[in-house]
Amino acid sequence: MLDFIYYPVSWILWFWHRVFGFAFGADNGLTWALAVVFLVFTLRLVLYKPFVKQVRTTKQMQELQPQIKELQKKYKNDRQKMALEMQKLQKENGFNPLMGCLPILAQVPVFLGLFHVLRSFNRTGHGFGQLGMTPEQNANTANYVFNAADVQSFLSARIFGAPISAFITTPVNELQAFADYGGVPSKLSIALVAIPLMVIAGLATHFNARASVARQTPEAAANPQAAMMNKLALWVFPLGVLVGGPFLPIAILLYWVSNNIWTYGQQHLVFGRMAKEEEAKKQAKLEQRAQNAPKPGAKPVNVKKKPAPTAAADTATDEDTPVASSNGTAKPSKQSAGQRRPAGQKRPGNRGRANQKRRR
């Protein structure tokens, strides 16, 4: 039913096994381990752009948190109206909450597909998803795109004496599938490889979560839902790796470790670029502000226009202007001597004489 997942996963794993097989040999445990690691890297490289959008979406959600709280408070009794207003807010800001979940959701089917493909190299068990084959039948039956020779190569591969498809709680009867291909491994040899990988995977999960939480805004961290998710990411998920590790194949633990290492490096790269973008925007604003500011020592220019003089004021100025006489003394104009002004008021004819006498 899930062959559309199993076949692509097995094709990618087959490709990297062929690549590293040329360097280290097809039956080498390092070849199969690197094939699993580069399967992770291939997936994460494909999901790089969605991851960047996820980071931007998460940051944008933190910035919109105050507005979201206001809408929740305003429409707490009308869920339909609140949903409509939330959609409107998301549309105005180009915010898509699904982009924050896409990279995580895309990794789930790959994880399940890899788990199934790795388990299918040993189908001697009788549990869920097992076929109850004999060791001979299992070694001579193809596994998706892997032929019988690839299955035998996988059974022969060891990492420090442990098959990468084995796990600490592997039943003894299933370990018999490795008898003709390097001998039956002991539980101790499997545990010596699996337990350090479990610890590394748990620590890597914790530090990745810590790096994400440290970049949250105080408003977002104060949100009860965000606070609960932070606790789950910081403590519950890493503990889940330690608790579930004994039931996971060594190859899945390798997948988990390499996935967390990639995530840690990718987060620093993406957040570093975003910090540079924000710094560049701030510098551009400061430069724009500096260009608009007046130069040192320059007089500020008054951009406000002075009001134009009215017609009445122009007429009054012309009337009040004295006319020079032939003997050099200034004579007032006819209108200023006694005629009425345009506004209907009569100016006094002796205006200015008292001042002239005082000056003499």
Automatic annotation (TrEMBL):
Disordered as annotated region, ranges: 281-360
Keyword Repeat attached: no
Alphabetized PANTHER family for the sequence: CYTOCHROME C OXIDASE ASSEMBLY PROTEIN COX18, MITOCHONDRIAL, OXA1
Stretches with biased composition (Low complexity): 289-301
Basic residues bias: start-end ranges: 348-360
Free-text function comment from the UniProt entry: Required for the insertion and/or proper folding and/or complex formation of integral membrane proteins into the membrane. Involved in integration of membrane proteins that insert both dependently and independently of the Sec translocase complex, as well as at least some lipoproteins. Aids folding of multispanning membrane proteins.
Membrane insertase YidC/Oxa/ALB C-terminal domain mapped to chain residues: 32-270
Domain of life, source organism: Bacteria
Principal place of residence: membrane
Similarity comment: family membership: Belongs to the OXA1/ALB3/YidC family. Type 1 subfamily.
Summary of subunit composition and partner proteins: Interacts with the Sec translocase complex via SecD. Specifically interacts with transmembrane segments of nascent integral membrane proteins during membrane integration.
Stretches assigned to coiled coil: 61-92
Transmembrane segments: 30-47, 188-211, 232-257
Listed Polar residues bias regions: 325-338
NCBIfam families, sorted: PRK03449.1, yidC_oxa1_cterm
Keyword Membrane: yes
Membrane topology: Multi-pass membrane protein
Keywords, in A-Z order: Cell membrane, Chaperone, Coiled coil, Membrane, Protein transport, Transmembrane, Transmembrane helix, Transport
Compartmental location: Cell membrane; Membrane
Protein name: Membrane protein insertase YidC
Organism, scientific name: Nocardia sputorum
